[in-house]
Amino acid sequence: MLARGSWKFKYLLPPAVVGAALLAISSLWGVLGFALAGFVAWFHRDPERSPPPEWGAVSPADGKVSVIREEGDRVRVGVFMNVHNVHVNRAPLDGTVEDVTHEPGGHRPAFDKESEHNERVHVDCGDYEVVLIAGAFARRIHPYVEAGEELARGDRIGHISFGSRVDLVLPERYDREDVLVEDGETVQAGETVLARRQRTEGDPDVALDGGAE
């Protein structure tokens, strides 16, 4: 399965057409053109994912944890996506999309401190927020959702073409101690639990976060 709109956004078609045209001239260049089309198709792969039964916020992206920091009464966890990672992003928790906004900016490498000023798309679900951040080679952010949509934990919410970073701003009820991953740890979108509150008697978090014991 390919990421939504991969053909429509003209990533796969051009190298495939060029490869077919070059094949009539040179088998080597034709094969290279088809190889490029194959790489683009592989990059935009979209495998099925199943959130774990345990409650808690799952990763919105495949890759390595590159940011864990407290911002006032919120905690931000960022995941850097390398070129070999799946680039389809997923909802970390159940929720309702309140707003999807595009913020213009630069295209610094997503692991650079200056990437804080990069182009990005904010998917605001009120209780939490997912931020899709463009990188040096990621010039296209494709959100799949709109305001008013209901999300289940693990639902697809968008993809970023060719490398980048995705941040999750956790709900206020999460503290730094609730984060289960460390900087540099490899995670998978929709499957790796990034944070889980310590459950207490009468705690509604299981229902709020999706999943069960």
TrEMBL record:
Q: How is it modified after translation?
A: Is synthesized initially as an inactive proenzyme. Formation of the active enzyme involves a self-maturation process in which the active site pyruvoyl group is generated from an internal serine residue via an autocatalytic post-translational modification. Two non-identical subunits are generated from the proenzyme in this reaction, and the pyruvate is formed at the N-terminus of the alpha chain, which is derived from the carboxyl end of the proenzyme.
Q: Which gene encodes it?
A: asd
Hey, where's the site called Cleavage (non-hydrolytic) on this chain?
Answer: 163-164
Write out the function statement from the record.
Catalyzes the formation of archaetidylethanolamine (PtdEtn) from archaetidylserine (PtdSer).
Q: Which residues lie in coiled coils?
A: none
Q: So which cofactors does this thing need?
A: pyruvate
Q: What is this protein called?
A: Putative archaetidylserine decarboxylase proenzyme
Assembly and interactions?
Answer: Heterodimer of a large membrane-associated beta subunit and a small pyruvoyl-containing alpha subunit.
Keyword Lipid metabolism, does the record have it?
Answer: yes
- The protein's organism comes out as Halobacterium litoreum
